[in-house]
Design a protein that fits this description.
heterodimer, A: alpha+beta, five-stranded antiparallel beta sheet, four-stranded antiparallel beta sheet, 16% helix, 28% strand, B: mainly beta, five-stranded mixed beta sheet, 34 strands, disordered C terminus, WDR12/Ytm1 (chain B), WD40_rpt (chain B), ribosome biogenesis (chain B), ribonucleoprotein complex binding (chain B)
């Protein structure tokens, strides 16, 4: 204590601090077990003060010494130190958390060096940095990189703003195709049946149940009952009691609402254009007749029927002026004319190329004419063939009379006359050229007759009449015979003598028919302006009904070589269609209308009466009511 | 107004102008150019008379304003255009109208006479002035084709083919004006539609509806060829019917699948035939082999060959006249088609003197004169006929002949211009 008071410099120097012990600044615990606590300047041990005071001594000292509380042990020397008043005060201040220096004021008023007000003079006098006014090279480099990236399109400078429309479609929900509409998917709840008269408090008397009805109602299962409540009559609305089934009914309604499967019926949206079958363009289906090439003039009245020679060089036509004319196809030259004096109803050129014979139906006779055209040897041979007939020994009863031509008629080319009892409507040849069939306008079983020209033998193939026969046809390949009545086409097997097929035409009145050279397809025209195509392998009903004509169809024809068929109608047009038949049974025939040929003038409300294809070229002939025959190529 | 630079050139020395480029209005037409040339010629030659010219650019006739034509043909208007000019072909002038009794099926002109085949079963000889000289009757059916074999001042040989399946070789004594049937050529089994005599005048070829071509000798002899008799016809009867000695074919060429409509000799060894089976076939006349086939897609009515330009022209049952190269191997390439008719083209004939010109007759009643250098439109339409035209021919000395279903034979004078000689 005395040292402290006397020499303040002793304490100031760290070197000289407590130089009595020279161990230095080490933890004094190292000397705990030693009797000394260090060494003095001379190197002699400094011994710990003898602490032989026991607890009692300590207690007495504590009680007696008034400075005990301010006495601490010096760890360096082990001597007791009594703290001075200044030291005590310092300790007390530190214990209170105050600054050690009494004179230090922690709460001095602060003076702002910078103010929030903008000052006109710089705070410092330092001149501005150079970099503050020179553009930054680093930034420039960064900007140029960005510019380059924008130029190259690597980054987009700014995204276009998504423009939200100011107005929105108020009815967007209504459109089921719109997005909003699709999310809605509102399915209305099933409606309840509205109460009827029987649920009225005062139903009409006929609704009230009688006694038996009530019994029957009670015996029925609740599910089977026609109505769930028994109609009851009350005098007034006030007299109506509480409805006992109310809860039950509400429960059932709730069951209805949640058990009833509510789903939207998906209606398939089909473009009507897509339903139309994909047909090839007519352009791709060449060749077919397109333009009128020749007009064969000479008839003075409507030309009812035409027929062409098997090699396609000659054309025969029969007209209402009572004449048959023979034409050269390539020049429209009338080679000669035969006059019969009566309407020529039908004529057919023998399809056998080695026979030169035309069958002509005039009034009640079928006339076989040798037109003496073409190869001389051929028509000479035909005459010989007809002349070589030897009458059988016994006369047979025949439905028609075979009359050889007189000399005068022979000179004109007429060779044989088949005299029927009635008006003859149609003649047609079998493909081999020996048999021919004729149709008579009659209602008996003798309507259809089949004749054999070489044997001069006729027969009526049918025992019973099946209706008015419109036209008949021989099958080109099989021994079948087709008979068209008003509404049906019957196919008979001539060998087995039985009906093989009956085709329903779905038309009111069949006018004509033609058979595909392949033999499996038939077209039939009707007076109700329909053309029916039958695929005989497919069904007995039409494969396709074509309604291209505006008025009654008069004639239909197939081409022998090209996939073409034509129909002639009273509306003055000929419609040529592409009709491809495939050998593959799985593929249906392809029918494409390709051309409407106009040319004939309407005369007496009649247009085109007959249509015919050239046997080798894609040409079509048509004969009309205006007395002309036209060739379209 | 736009201008073009053009250089004018002509084959004809008489009308040559200076070979320097001229600037002409782009919209000028043939008349303007013609006036220009005439002015240039008048400047050089005081006694020049006005001549109409026609202009060719790259071998195509100018038929519209110059600039439109060049646009269509893709010719650059920047460069100097080379324009060739020729004296304009004068319109054929109608000269004679010779009346027949019936439709005319065929015509062949000789130096002084015209031979026609007629549907009244006769062939007729007419002078160029339209005087009837001879009527040759003998066929039992329509005469479909006629041909001169040989012409002398004393006697001529001629042929007629008929629908009665025969051809008759006639000798016509000019002085006595007598005609005699020398040979009856039998063998066809159908109407004989076409005959052609070869250039040596010793053979001829016939095409018939029976799909056959037959080659016959055209030299008159005194011998009769043996013919297999048709057993059914009595020999006596046949004898009385027939005119002249029977002749049988030297060779038969078969290969067509339809009627043969037209035959011709390309040279002494080659025969060309057109048929309804849509083909034109070339045959070796010596061996009878098929050399090549040109396939079309329509029936051929008529075919003609020009030795000058070595092209075949065909008329078919559509509106087009088609030009073919007979030597092409692939055989279905149409070089050019000339379209202006509205009906079947029944007859075509190349000009014997001009390599670019041909005439055609059609079912639309019009005869057209064509220049292959102007394929878009014909040079002239000759619309004199009132009915179908079946046959056309060129006569020597610039005469065009046509006959048809109105039974009239029309002659047109077609003036040959000086440039014709050069061409």
């Amino acid at each position: 204590m005395a040292l402290l008071a006397h020499n303040e410099y002793e304490e100031d120097s760290s070197d000289e601090e407590d130089i009595r012990n020279t161990v230095g600044n080490i933890p004094m615990e190292w000397y705990q077990d030693f009797p000394h606590v260090g060494y003095d300047l001379e190197g002699k041990r400094i011994y710990k003060p003898i602490r032989n005071k026991d607890e009692l001594d300590l207690f007495l000292e504590k009680m007696e010494n008034p400075d005990y509380w301010r006495t601490v042990q010096d760890p360096k020397t082990g001597a007791d130190l009594k703290l001075t008043d200044e030291q005590l005060e310092l300790v007390q201040r530190l214990q209170k958390g105050q600054f050690g220096d009494v004179h230090f004021n922690p709460y001095e008023p602060s003076i702002d060096f910078f103010t929030h007000e903008v000052m006109i003079h710089p705070v410092t006098n330092r001149p501005a940095d150079k970099r503050s006014f020179i553009p930054s090279l680093i930034e420039k480099e960064k900007v140029s990189k960005l510019v380059h990236a924008i130029k190259m399109g690597w980054i987009k400078p700014r995204k276009p703003k998504e423009e939200t429309p100011t107005y929105y479609d108020l009815w967007a929900h209504e459109d089921p195709n719109s997005i909003l509409g699709r999310h809605k998917m509102h399915v209305p709840a099933p409606k309840m049946k509205l109460p009827g008269h029987e649920e009225s408090y005062n139903p009409p008397p006929e609704y009230l149940l009688s006694e038996e009805e009530r019994l029957a109602w009670e015996q029925q299962e609740p599910e089977e009952r026609r109505m769930s409540v028994v109609p009851q009559q009350h005098r007034s609305l006030r007299a109506v009691p509480a409805f006992p089934r109310f809860i039950h009914e509400r429960f059932e309604r709730c069951l209805d609402l949640y058990l009833c499967p509510r789903q939207r019926k998906m209606r398939v949206n089909v473009d009507p254009e897509e339903l139309i079958p994909k047909l090839p363009k007519p352009r791709d289906l060449q060749p077919f007749p397109t333009t009128q090439a020749l007009v064969y003039r000479g008839h003075t009245c409507l030309v009812r029927c035409i027929s062409i020679s098997p090699n396609g060089q000659w054309l025969a036509s029969g007209s209402d002026d009572g004449s048959v004319r023979f034409w050269e196809v390539s020049t429209a030259r009338c080679m000669h004319a035969l006059s019969f004096g009566a309407v020529v109803k039908s004529l057919a050129w023998n399809p056998n190329p080695s026979i030169c014979l035309v069958a002509i139906a005039v009034e009640q006779t079928v006339v076989l004419v040798n037109p003496c055209l073409g190869d001389k040897l051929l028509y000479g041979a035909t005459d010989q063939l007809l002349a070589s007939y030897v009458p059988p020994d016994e006369e047979r009863v025949q439905p028609v009379q075979w009359v050889p031509a007189t000399a005068e008629q022979h000179r004109k080319g007429i060779r044989l006359l088949l005299q029927h009892g009635k008006e003859v409507k149609q003649v047609t040849w079998h493909g081999k050229g020996d048999y021919l069939a004729s149709v008579v306008s009659d209602n008996s079983n003798q309507q259809v007759l089949i004749h054999q020209s070489s044997k001069r033998w006729s027969q009526a193939p049918f025992r019973r009449s099946k209706g008015l026969v419109q036209c008949v046809l021989f099958h080109p390949i099989r021994p079948h015979f087709l008979v068209a009545t008003q509404r049906y086409i019957r196919v008979y097997n001539l060998l087995k003598q039985e009906l093989t097929k009956k085709l329903m035409s779905n038309c009111k009145w069949v006018s004509s028919m033609a058979i595909h050279p392949g033999g499996d397809n038939i077209i039939c025209g009707s007076y109700d302006s329909k053309l029916a195509w039958f695929d005989m392998d497919l069904s007995t009903r039409p494969y396709r009904l074509l309604r291209h004509h505006k008025r009654a169809l008069r004639s239909v024809a197939f081409h022998k070589r090209y996939p073409l068929f034509a129909s002639a109608s009273d509306d003055g047009t000929v419609i040529v269609c592409h009709g491809m038949v495939y050998n593959d049974l799985l593929q249906n025939p392809l029918l494409v209308p390709v051309k409407v040929l106009k040319g004939h003038e309407l005369t007496q409300d009649l247009g085109v009466l007959d249509v015919l294809f050239h046997p080798t070229q894609p040409w079509v002939f048509s004969s009309g009511a205006d007395g002309t025959i036209r060739l379209y190529t | 107004m736009a201008q073009l630079t053009a250089r004018f050139r002509t084959e004809n020395r008489r009308y040559a102008v200076e070979d320097v480029p001229f600037s002409v209005p782009a919209a000028s037409e043939t008349t303007d150019l013609s006036q220009l040339i005439n002015k240039l010629l008048a400047a050089g030659n005081a006694d020049h008379k006005y001549v109409e010219f026609d202009f060719l650019i790259n071998g195509q006739f100018l038929r519209m304003p110059l600039v439109t034509h060049m646009e269509m043909e893709n010719i650059s208007t920047e460069e100097v255009v080379e324009i060739e000019y020729v004296e304009k072909y004068m319109a054929p002038q109608p000269e004679e109208c010779i009346f027949h009794n019936d439709w005319i099926s065929s015509i062949q002109a000789a130096e002084e006479w015209i031979l026609t085949g007629c549907y009244d079963k006769t062939a007729r000889i007419w002078s160029l002035e339209g005087k009837s000289i001879m009527t040759i009757a003998g066929h039992t059916e329509v005469v479909k084709d006629v041909a001169w074999v040989k012409q002398d001042s004393l006697s001529c040989l001629l042929l007629s083919a008929s629908m009665d399946q025969t051809m008759l070789l006639w000798e016509w004594n000019v002085e006595k004006n007598k005609v005699k049937a020398l040979h009856c050529c039998r063998g066809h089994a159908g109407s004989v539609d076409s005959i052609a005599v070869d250039c040596t005048r010793t053979k001829f070829c016939s095409g018939s509806w029976d799909k056959m071509l037959k080659i016959w000798s055209a030299v008159p002899t005194d011998e009769e060829d043996e013919m297999e008799e048709a057993a059914n016809i009595p020999r006596k009867k046949q004898k009385t019917e027939q005119l002249g000695l029977t002749r049988t074919p030297l060779a038969t060429l078969s290969g067509h699948t339809e009627a043969v409509s037209s035959v011709l000799w390309i040279d002494a060894e080659e025969i060309c035939s057109a048929s309804w089976d849509h083909t034109i076939k070339l045959w070796d006349a010596e061996t009878g082999d098929l050399k090549s086939t040109l396939t079309g897609n329509k029936v051929f009515n008529s075919v003609s060959y020009s030795p000058l330009c070595r092209r075949l022209a065909s008329g078919s049952t559509d509106r087009h006249i088609r030009l073919w190269d007979p030597r092409s191997k692939d055989g279905s390439l149409v070089l050019l088609s000339l379209t202006s008719h509205t009906g079947w083209v029944t007859s075509v004939k190349w000009s014997p003197t001009h390599e670019h010109q041909l005439i055609s007759g059609s079912l639309d009643n019009i005869v057209k004169l064509w220049d292959t250098r102007s394929c878009k439109a014909p040079l002239y339409d000759l619309a004199a006929h009132e009915d179908k035209v079946f046959c056309v021919d060129w006569a020597e000395g610039g005469l065009l002949l046509s006959g048809g279903a109105d039974s009239k034979l029309y002659c047109y004078r077609y003036p040959t211009t000086a440039s014709d000689v050069g061409a």
